[in-house]
Each structure stands twice: as structure tokens, then as C-alpha cells.
Design a protein that fits this description.
By secondary structure, the chain is of the alpha/beta class. It has helices at about 5-10, 25-35, 50-60, 70-75, 80-85, 120-125, 135-150, 175-190, and strands at about 20, 40, 65-70, 90-100, 100, 110, 130-135, 155-160. The longest helix is centred in the last third of the chain and has 16 residues, at about 175-190. It is globular and about 45 Å long. The termini are far apart.
């Protein structure tokens, strides 16, 4: 299963949600589908997408927050899964694309590459109430649809191939992205 196809499949459902991505391939693949001002590409901050998502979910309880993350980023900040489980924001969906590779930082194998480390098991052990592990497109779509409808913290670990985009580049830098994202929140939720 390709991460880019998973993101493409859920893209239509992201128009009214706050979306935070990790750095690198995931961000580029979402951007290439067409930027929306409710997308925040967390560049240069590996491991912190779920923390930003948690802050958004807690401060904007009427917004659905979707975090698009990778195994390398999650492994850099495993404590975030325990923190998510501790606060259990009902409006947060954390999608972890597990390709067993640190693809965006050189392609080295991650701890999940040989199956010894299982992020879904770790999320369950941390206390996340709804965790799905999927490895095909049908199961991914079903898990995402359920999570988007559910009013409870959800984590989806999607096993994907270690394939990334053939290019990197966005037409704006992080400060402009942050400004547009903040303005979109203010316009839709009255928060600044």
C-alpha cells in the first residue's frame, strides 16, 4: 500500500478538518494534492506533529484534528502516545504511516522495519482507546471513515511501502503556512 494513495483517498474528507503533517514525504504528498489553508506542514520539527495536534484538539474541541505522521517521527517522541492517551481528545485522529524507514532523512530502516517494534501495540499499551492496524487500502479507508465519525481519540497505524515523492518543494515557508493556518482557524472557529 502506498502512503500517497492513502492520503489521496482521504483528501476529500480533509476540507473541514485541521490537518497537521510531519515533515518530509507525507507533507509533500498532501501538498501535491492541492494546498488548503487548513493544512499545517510541520517542517523541521520531526516527532512533534502529534504534540501540535494535541494542542489544537484541546484548544478547539469543536474542530476535528487529523495528524498525518510517520513511524520515524513517532519513534522520536514515543511519549506523545502516552500523553495523547492521558488527555484523550475526542476530536483527534492520529494516522501513522509506517514504512519501516526514515525515508525523509536518508532512508535508513526504522525500529519497525523487522517487526520487532509494533506502534499499534505501543499505542494500545499507552491507553489509546481506539487503535487500528491496517495493511491494505480497503481496511485503511474503513478505519479512517470510522475514526472521522467517532467522537473519541483514534490512532491508525497504516503499513505502507517505503516510497516517497520524486521531488520536494512548496511555494511558501513555514511562517507563511503558520499565518494562513491561524487565519483559517480564526475564520472558522473564531479563535486566534
Amino acid at each position: 500500500m502506498l502512503r500517497s494513495k492513502c492520503i489521496e483517498a482521504i483528501y476529500p474528507e480533509l476540507h473541514d478538518k485541521l490537518v497537521v503533517t510531519n515533515m518530509g514525504a507525507c507533507a509533500q504528498e498532501l501538498y501535491d494534492l492541492g494546498h488548503r489553508d487548513n493544512f499545517f506542514y510541520l517542517q523541521h520539527a520531526m516527532g512533534l506533529a502529534s504534540s501540535i495536534g494535541l494542542g489544537l484538539a484541546q484548544s478547539l474541541p469543536h474542530a476535528k484534528v487529523v495528524v498525518l505522521d510517520g513511524d520515524g517521527s513517532v519513534l522520536m517522541n514515543l511519549g506523545a502516545l502516552a500523553t495523547l492517551a492521558r488527555y484523550r481528545p475526542a476530536n483527534l485522529v492520529h494516522i501513522i504511516f509506517d514504512n519501516g524507514s526514515l525515508l525523509s532523512t536518508g532512508g535508513f530502516p526504522s525500529h519497525t522495519a523487522d517487526g520487532a517494534t509494533d506502534l499499534a501495540t505501543i499505542a494500545r499499551g499507552a491507553g489509546v482507546p481506539h487503535v487500528e492496524s491496517v495493511s491494505n487500502a480497503y481496511d485503511f479507508m474503513e478505519a479512517a471513515a470510522d475514526a472521522f465519525e467517532r467522537h473519541a481519540l483514534s490512532v491508525i497505524v497504516a503499513k505502507v511501502e517505503a516510497v516517497g515523492p520524486d521531488h520536494y518543494g512548496m511555494h511558501f515557508q513555514l511562517p507563511e503556512n503558520a499565518f494562513l493556518f491561524k487565519r483559517w482557524i480564526a475564520e472558522h472557529f473564531g479563535a486566534a
